[in-house]
Amino acid sequence: MGDLTMDFLRLMLMAAMLLTSLQGQAAEATSAPAALPATHDVAFLRSPDKACTDCHKEQSEGMHGKHGQATNPNNLAPVTCTNCHGQPSPQHREGVKDVMRFSDSFNNKQSTESYPIAEQNGVCMSCHEPGPLREALWAHDVHATKLSCTSCHQLHPAREPMVAIPEKSRIKLCVDCHSKQHQAKAVGLQVNAGKEAP
């Protein structure tokens, strides 16, 4: 009988300790603010550019260079096709030209009829602020309203040819472009002079 009494007392003591512990936990839960449920980062299962690259196979590897690793300062997410080209309509797959197209306005003046220079450059300027561009090279200010950014820069290259260009090469670019410009004006003046001759 003594052993049975001892076992009973041990069992009662353990039950009392368990009950005290549970009461203490319950008191802490009511006095402490409710814990918020854990949040989970949602990872997209497919690339946000997949709808674009399904048709535009030449861009299936995505953007390269700085744009490929860039964060859009407007939404702090990676840069996607639609950040620069805009949202296509359902008719886009049928050939409707409803997204921004960037062009070389220096060599192809007609390319700016659908998408004027100001619109093209406005897309670039939504991320690239004029101040740092001006500090990098004064020519950005001079050309910003007369040439599309893509007349000099490429959008998807593995290495942007204009970045870190040596000073001599930069001067050669100025001379080459402005020589072409002067030649075009001279030809235009000769053509106009020929029309006026009797």
Could you please describe the fold and organization of this structure?
The protein is an all-alpha fold and 198 residues long. It is built from eight helices and no strands. The protein has helices at residues 2-31, 50-53, 65-69, 81-85, 117-125, 130-136, 139-143, 167-196. The chain is elongated and about 130 Å long. The mean pLDDT is 79.
- What's the end-to-end separation, in Å? 140 Å
Q: With helices defined by DSSP (H or I, 4 residues minimum), what is the helix count? A: 8
Q: What is the average per-residue confidence, as pLDDT, rounded to a whole number? A: 79
Q: How much of the residues is beta strand, in percent?
A: under 5%
User: How many beta strands in the DSSP annotation?
Assistant: 0
Biggest sheet overview: none
The H-and-E topology, N to C, reads as: HHHHHHHH
Multimer state: single chain
The assigned structural class equals mainly alpha
Rg to the nearest angstrom? 34 Å
Please tell me what the overall shape is. Answer: elongated
Helix share bin? 40-55%
Low-confidence stretches: none
